[in-house]
Specification:
Layout: H1 2-9, H2 13-39, H3 47-57, H4 68-103, H5 115-129, H6 138-158, E1 159-160, E2 163-164, H7 166-189, H8 193-204, H9 212-226, H10 228-239, H11 243-248, H12 253-275, H13 281-293, H14 297-308, H15 311-320, H16 329-352
Antiparallel strand pairs: 1-2
Length: about 350
């Protein structure tokens, strides 16, 4: 009851209207980009035929059908790739929004503070050692364990006297990235040529090796991670008022942080396990959504899921800008996210009057 009263008091009629509008716009844009991306490539398929193919597979005799070659290209190559990009982007967007909420820090992001690198070390370690204890899930499990351990380490190291220090958080991330880079470098140094190719995939990021088994394997990770959205969105709004206020309003802050850390570690580790290190999505997307819809997490979290899924647009650019060559997905997102991060640092510094 206390949560509901405080929550209703913090809402405004404009926010009620702006949130659904942003969610609807993102959902429509997501479908449009996915259809266009499915049709573009070495064997182009018109958007009407892309939709017609989907509808006919769904049992609806509507729209034009593509020829047999286009059907094969769509269902064996394009659709798995688009869906994997959607899933990876959604996971990273949601994880970034969660992390910024629980740390109370707009600069927090799985890649910036080293969680993506930690998960990548776990995935690469499996490739390097040839472990296959859990079969297809060994890489995912290893990435999750290392990602969770890295998340807990960064969280505990940045905490002091009941609060999370911004500078300590970022410096910890720099150190974690450096250590992870050194570990990956060592494994590359002692790897064979075939292993080096796989390791390079994890470092630069790509969904070029997408297939239906990977898409189905990613889905349960997304479902478990996204469960935290309806459960903790309102509590994150209260945490934004300050830890003391949130506790006074009935929020168990430490337990909430622990569960959210598990959820975002699962999402980030799954994304890294299937697509390698794709940086800056978890940083850029929540900020853009926050500028459009405001800071309320009941809109911010689902909108970050939809906004992050627009990673499919970055993948489309990666495979078409320099065709027939393909640019690594992590390179494309870094080219976009890097300048945005510079702007964000300058903006945060201006508001706080400097870091010292």
């Amino acid at each position: 009851m206390t949560l509901r009263v405080a929550d209703r008091a913090s809402e405004s009629p404009q926010r009620h209207l702006r949130g659904p509008a942003v969610l609807t716009t993102l959902a429509v844009g997501l479908v449009a980009v996915a259809v266009v991306a499915s049709g573009l490539g070495a064997y182009p398929v018109p958007p009407a035929e892309v939709l017609g193919s989907i509808l006919h597979r769904a049992g609806l005799d509507l729209g034009p059908r593509p020829d047999q070659v286009a059907e094969t290209v769509l269902w064996e190559v394009r659709f798995p790739r688009v869906l994997l990009a959607l899933g990876v982007g959604a996971a990273l967007g949601c994880a970034g929004a969660m992390m910024q909420g629980i740390f109370g820090n707009p600069l927090a992001e799985p890649g910036v503070i080293g969680i993506s690198s930690g998960a990548a070390v776990g995935a690469i370690l499996v490739i390097f050692s040839g472990l296959s204890v859990l079969g297809y899930w060994t890489i995912i499990a290893s990435g999750f364990v290392f990602g969770l351990a890295t998340t807990l380490f960064v969280y505990l190291f940045a905490r002091s006297q009941g609060r999370t220090e911004v500078v300590t958080l970022l410096l910890t991330g720099i150190a974690v990235n450096a250590v992870a880079g050194a570990a990956i470098g060592l494994m590359i140094n002692f790897s064979q040529s075939a292993e080096i190719q796989s390791i390079t995939f994890w470092q630069l990021g790509s969904v070029g090796a997408a297939n239906w088994p990977k898409v189905w394997a990613l889905l349960p990770c997304l479902a478990l991670g996204f469960l935290a959205v309806p459960i903790y969105a309102r509590r994150l709004d209260l945490l934004a008022l300050g830890e003391g206020s949130a506790r006074h309003l009935g929020v168990n802050v430490e337990r909430m942080r622990l569960w959210l850390i598990v959820a975002l570690a699962l999402l980030t580790s799954a994304a890294v396990a299937f697509a390698g290190i794709v940086s800056f999505v978890g940083l850029v997307v929540p900020h853009i959504v926050r500028m459009l819809a405001g800071p309320g997490h009941r809109v911010l979290l689902p909108a970050s899921v939809l906004g992050g899924a627009l990673l499919v647009a970055a993948d489309l650019a990666a495979r078409t800008v320099a065709a027939p060559a393909e640019i690594p997905l992590g390179v494309v997102t870094a080219l976009i996210g890097g300048p945005f991060f510079f702007w964000l640092l300058r903006r945060a510094r201006g508001r706080q009057g400097g870091w010292a």
